[in-house]
Design brief:
Largest sheet: 6 strands, mixed
Distance between the termini: 80 Å
CATH superfamily of the largest domain: Collagenase (Catalytic Domain)
CATH topology of the largest domain: Collagenase (Catalytic Domain)
Number of helices: 6
Order of helices and strands: HEEHEEHEEEEEHEEHEEEEEEEHEE
Amino acid sequence: MEESLRNSIIYSSIFFLIFFSMLFFYYNFSTLTEENNTEEIYDEFSNIDKLHWTHMPITYQINNKGLCGDFQLNETIRAFQEIEKATESYVNFLEVESEADLDISCLSLVDIKKDFEKSIKCKNITFNYKKEKIDVYNEGILSLTQYSVSTETIKRTENETIYQVCYSDNRYVSEDFLGEARPSIINNKIIHGEIYLYKGKFGWTKCSNFPTKSVHEIFHVLGFVHFTSSNIICNPICINLPQEDIMYPYISCDFQNKINLRYITCLKNIYSNNEVDGTCSEINFWKLCPEGYVLGQNYKCYEECGEGHYCSEDSTCIEKECFSCSEGYYLSDDNLCYPEEFLGSFKALFNPSSKPPTLLSVNSKKQSV
């Protein structure tokens, strides 16, 4: 009996020792994980629902400085200073030697041009009707990441138009342009950014009074995309003219010689954590599309048709391919094309002139982003 009691006490002690050890481990592990998660998602500007960086200053480093000319480097530094000054340092930058938030890379134009010439591809785009002109970007034939080299009309008749579109997937192609800039985004937070700089073959387009190009590209990594015609307000006088906006995609030193007030007030509002009054209503932001959708040329989300692609508004996705009917026809629910005169009519069900839709040639109007 005494031995049984002793064994019971020993087993009970072992049980409680294991139980409290597990409890101690679980508590400490849970606390550590929670603290780490808190550090990962910490946001100095948690009152803001717009796309934004989570901290200030934004650190940056310039890689391969020897490949850039003095003007490009000085203009970039000056652009940082102009943004800090305009926002009263609510937005500020700090140069570091490694592990920066923003990587600025100088690239060799000679190497770029060699790669570019090797990368040029051409494709024929066919339309089953007479077409007078083509817009390779707005019609979704090329994506924003592709560079249009040339467009040539091969054939144009009443029933058929064929264009040859030559392009490159090499994104470092423009000969006199401040490369490109793009932020990396997670959960509506900017976690990293990249800007590419290189000196053009015919020299850098210099806006002597203001670092227009550099501010434009830095604004991209602050989350802003291009100013579009949809931003123009006419009531009755037109304001917000696109060429006057720093985020207009085409540089004009005569017009874009300052940071527009709408960007200043927006940035101050965001990076004061909503303490400074301001609105971002007139500004276009980068955005992430829901699963199954991709971002289009107009920065709207479209249903995905095949991996990373979408169809333009005048074509339809069928089994991950974009199809379109000839002019004067419409696509019915049975995936056949019928004359528009039968639209909404039961005659379409018995119409012998029905025909299959046209598979748009070589990714035509099928946008890749």
